[in-house]
Amino acid sequence: MSFGQGGPSWGPGDSGTPDWAALAEASAARGRRRKWLLIGGGALATAAVAAIVATAITTSGKGGASGSDKNASELPAPVDLPSESSAPQPSFSSVAPPPPPDPKDFIADEKKDKAPVTVDAFFPGRKLTMGDRVYAKGATARTTSCAATTQGALGSILTTNGCDQVIRATYSRSGVAVTVGVAVFGTEAEAGKAARQASGGLASLSGSGVPTFCRGGSVCRRTANSYGRYAYFTVGGLTSGKNVTTADRNVYAVGDDLTDFTFRQILHRGEVQASSAAGAPVT
Question: What pLDDT is recorded for position 203?
């Protein structure tokens, strides 16, 4: 402990006992001086730090502005985009395209139906395949004497309605034979009327490996249909000469296959001509 230049202060009468009150007052005075020195030093340090920070900010601001200006000057200038494209713009016609031709129009009248009328046009190849069923193709015939291809009243019906010719073909499989005939007319109305009036039936066509069938009064299955200017008929039976009954499902199956095939051939005839007309230039 420091007591100053005069040494320690003793109590009254200099009895050797320290003056404790004086010592406490001196110690408090020294504490106050140290406190004010610390406060003053802290304030000066804070002011110095603030001055350094302010100087750094000012310096950084100047450098940053200079750097920003420099970077901006080095960026490429914006590209001027054209306000309108110079490329040609698509255009659309306000006129609707014509509808595709109807295939039936080309087989409904002889004036538009110009495809060849031949045996091969309706019954091509040497056999017929329908699904998993294969039929051998037998005899074929084409004649303009429509009545000669019929039995009973069908001959006069064909003639009265203006039949031009009849094309026949016979197919067989597993003891069943069916003859299909296509009667050609000038118009759809004539063919449709002949099919609706059908009585009697088509005469079977034997030969080329198929024996005579459905002749001499034997019972056979007969059908009549029409599409466009074509009426088509079938007669089917057993090559054994026996009468056909409802139990002979094979006879019905073969007849249905040939009826379906003939319809498709007539329809295909119209589709081919319609497709050709669609690709032809407009006149």
Answer: 97
For residues 203 and 7, the model is more confident at 203
Q: What are phi and psi of 132, to 5 degrees?
A: -100, 10
Residues 258 and 234: beta-carbon distance below 8 Å: yes
Question: From residue 116, how far is each of 12, 155, 268, 280, 283 by CA, in Å?
Answer: 159, 24, 13, 19, 24
In 3D space, the residue among 140, 116, 159, 113 whose CA is nearest the CA of residue 277 turns out to be 113
Contacts of 239 (CB under 8 A, 6+ apart): 172, 175, 176, 177, 210, 211, 213
Q: Give the three-state DSSP class for 171.
A: strand
Contacts of 60 (CB under 8 A, 6+ apart): none
Question: What does the pLDDT average to over 235-246?
Answer: 96
Name the amino acid, one letter, at 143: T
* DSSP symbol at 71: H
CB-CB contact of 147 with 156 (8 Å):
yes
Q: Which amino acid belongs to residue 165?
A: Q
**If pLDDT is split at 50, 70 and 90, which confidence band does 51 have?**
low
Nearest to 186 by CA among 108, 106, 273, 102: 108
The number of residues in the chain equals 283
pLDDT in tens, 209-233: 999 999 988 999 999 999 999 999 9
